[in-house]
Design a protein that fits this description.
Length: about 300
């Protein structure tokens, strides 16, 4: 986020003054939402770029902007600004029985400020953002995880490697990178059901699951799934037999967890693509099971 902010300021697309003012506005009114502006053409170009990426053109290397010993000026855009913190703190408790929205982090406020200003200036559209978020949250990321799951279902040796060293086995399929330096894979069985949370923030295995869904980052999920996992799973529509042990795993900045769901019955004759279509993001977090496919007529 800081790199994006610096780039927008350096290119003159935003000014520090308007960005600070908009951040304070969202801090003073936590319930304020970013105004929507749709642009079907831009959204379609984003969708095309994501799902049908064009090969990058070879470009001549640009000369370095700085030489060793050059004097440079660094802009201070560190996120911890006390004024924002104090403003956000004012919403911490109820007054006269009225509920106040939960204070948002500086990063969340700054992100809303950047998004709203870019939309107002016509440089961005809400539906283009939605397309990109949905692609990485529901499509591209979880598809990677589904390929890992299917490989484990159909290759016993790969499954052994996956459970012993998830990071290395996942990398065999070409999935690695940010938020995936250490991934541990947890196997669901008829007697043990695993579910993943990050109680501190929203640590999540991006290379195999994409972006974390909003509910995964919510205070309610992060607090309740540790205390009453069965009740939370039931709210997701998953009712487990009392004989099944539920294990809750807390991801952190060092280790991310991914669930290897049970393979449903009546899938022995299905090919890899058909199996992958059964695997959902929620089943790899542990709040759902992979459902048995409906019989075809």
């Amino acid at each position: 986020m800081l790199a994006l902010e610096a780039a927008l300021l350096n290119k003159g697309l935003l000014t520090a003054e308007e960005l600070d003012a908009r951040t304070r506005q969202f801090s003073d009114d936590p319930s304020a939402e970013v105004a929507r502006r749709n642009d079907a053409g831009l959204a379609e170009r984003v969708r095309r770029r994501i799902f049908q990426p064009q090969p990058l053109e070879q470009q001549a290397a640009s000369p370095s902007r700085f030489a060793v010993g050059d004097a440079i000026v660094v802009r201070n855009i560190h996120p911890h600004r006390k004024s924002i913190g104090r403003a956000a703190m004012s919403g911490n408790h109820d007054h006269n029985g009225e509920h106040h929205p939960e204070p948002q982090s500086y990063a969340a406020l700054r992100t809303k400020a950047i998004e709203s200003l870019l939309i107002e200036k016509g440089l961005l559209s809400t539906d283009a953002i939605d397309v990109r978020v949905q692609a990485y949250e529901q499509d591209i990321g979880p598809l990677n995880g589904a390929k890992v799951v299917v490989r484990a279902w159909t290759d016993a040796e790969y499954k052994r490697r996956l459970l012993e060293d998830g990071t290395a086995a996942i990398a065999e399929l070409g999935f690695f990178g940010a938020q995936g330096a250490e991934i541990i894979v947890l196997e669901n069985t008829p007697t043990v059901h695993n579910v993943v949370v990050c109680t501190l923030c929203s640590c999540y295995p991006w290379p195999v699951l994409g972006l974390p869904p909003r509910w995964y980052k919510s205070d309610a999920y992060r607090a309740r799934v540790v205390i009453e996992p069965r009740a939370v799973l039931q709210e997701f529509g998953l009712a487990l037999d009392e004989s099944v042990e539920v294990r809750v795993w807390d991801s952190n900045s060092d280790i991310r967890y991914m669930v290897l769901p049970e393979r449903p019955e009546d899938t022995k004759n299905m090919d890899a693509d058909a199996l992958a279509a059964l695997v959902t993001r929620d089943s790899m977090i542990g709040v759902a099971q992979v459902k048995t496919p409906m019989p075809t007529a």
